[in-house]
Write a structure and sequence with these properties.
The protein has helices spanning 3-13, 26-29, 36-41, 51-64, 66-73, 90-95, 150-160, 163-183, 200-208, 222-229, 246-253, 266-273, 292-324; strands at residues 18-23, 79-82, 110-117, 123-126, 136-139, 186-192. The protein is α/β, with parallel strands linked by helices. The protein has one domain (3-324): 3-Layer(aba) Sandwich (Rossmann fold). It has a 4-stranded parallel sheet, sandwiched between helices. The protein has a two-stranded antiparallel sheet with strand order 4-5. Helix 5 (66-73) crosses helix 13 (292-324), helix 8 crosses helix 9 (200-208) and helix 9 crosses helix 10. The radius of gyration is 20 Å and the shape is globular.
Length: 325
Amino acid sequence: MYDWYKWKLIDKLQKKSKAIIGIGDSFTQGQGACSIDLWKKHNWDLGGVGIKDERELLTSFYENSWVNKLCTNHFTDHVPINLGMVGRGNRGAVKELYLHPELNMESIEEKIVVFMLTGIERFDFVHKNLHEHIHFLTISPNPDTKGDHSKLWAEYYESIWSDKFGIIEMLLSIAEAKTWCKAHNAKLYLTSAFRPEYERQPFIRGIMGDIDDETNYLYKQTEYIKSLVDIIDWKKFIRPNGFKCVSDFLCSLENREDLIEEVGSAKYYEFAGKIKKFSPRGYVTNCAHPSQKGHEAIAKSIYESIIEDINKEKEVITNKITNLI
């Protein structure tokens, strides 16, 4: 989070005691969701924007993100707190809840945390310099990457990474979010940015593995694995308009359900990679992110899911009171 954005939030939080807190990666921060005027200004290429134009662009990202749209269009008495960070993993995303003590989020009277999960393969280290906005160094299991940390990426691939590792790490990040929310009286909802396979049975199979021998302790630990996977409250896992992840939802809005896959979103990214400006129906940008229009649709879907859950909770409480009378 940038300091200029943080100080604006502090001012708003002094006037309101309700907040929507969004945590995640670029799909949360609002990467690419700037106004059409800004896209045109930069000739439909945001990759080479200079420092003098950076703040204007970032402000537009925040303003048009689903976190902000949830508050401007739906929860109008809430302040949007966008903790999304481009390129981060789930481990780093959840820790953003602790890295902004000036916001005093713990004392906000009513708060809803929406955790838009990213790829399980991303692993976050606290950045050795902890910059203003970049708090983590994020790596992926790729032995062929180039750059300053290529050896680290390669070693991660060779010595640490497995599907089992990635799933369990993500579950522990979700457990951390649950603990923070329980401690500070916040509601927590989960959704997936671009991974459709975030479901109970694939997680159980992923942790169990395929090999039944002495090297795989967890293969026969079915009940233990189920308990781990049920760290997630699956009833509060938001499926945008019934789709498994946000990128699938965007494909449906584009009338391109042929791009939806059981595992991963390769077809979505291939589709986005061919976009010159915006997608045909305007929901996806040429940088493979939701557009402003896309974020508005995402916010509406998340809002409807949250309201449905709140109404169910009220119904349960009403029924309990009725039974006591």
